[in-house]
Write a sequence for this structure.
């Protein structure tokens, strides 16, 4: 954990106040968060299903990323009634659902350039 009065924390707070983009990027930054959100949207809403879908993520990292997504209210954890042992599933909030088309657009953008779209300098307007 970072100290609240550290230079990095102070700079982060400043950037969040300057532009909401910085706050939004921070919510989904991390190697796995966007993939976790997308995977939950596709029905992989339990820990073991996410682990199966993302085999290279450690259980510790998956747990931490899920907790951070909960903290940002992108997902909520719900108990599954009448299961032994008690089961939980992860559900996207409206905030998380609103994020799906944005992630899909970013994915399309990434694919476009990964497939070799020419990069050029745009003239100044």
């Amino acid at each position: 954990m970072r100290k609240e009065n550290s230079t990095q924390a102070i700079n982060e707070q400043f950037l969040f106040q300057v532009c909401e983009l910085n706050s939004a990027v921070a919510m989904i930054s991390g190697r796995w968060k966007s993939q976790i959100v997308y995977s939950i949207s596709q029905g992989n809403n339990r820990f073991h299903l996410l682990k199966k879908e993302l085999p290279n993520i450690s259980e510790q990292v998956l747990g931490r990323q899920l907790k951070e997504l909960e903290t940002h209210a992108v997902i909520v954890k719900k108990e599954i009634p009448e299961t032994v042992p008690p089961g939980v599933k992860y559900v996207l909030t409206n905030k998380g659902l609103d994020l799906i088309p944005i992630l899909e657009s970013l994915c399309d953008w990434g694919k476009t350039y990964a497939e070799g779209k020419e990069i050029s300098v745009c003239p100044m307007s």
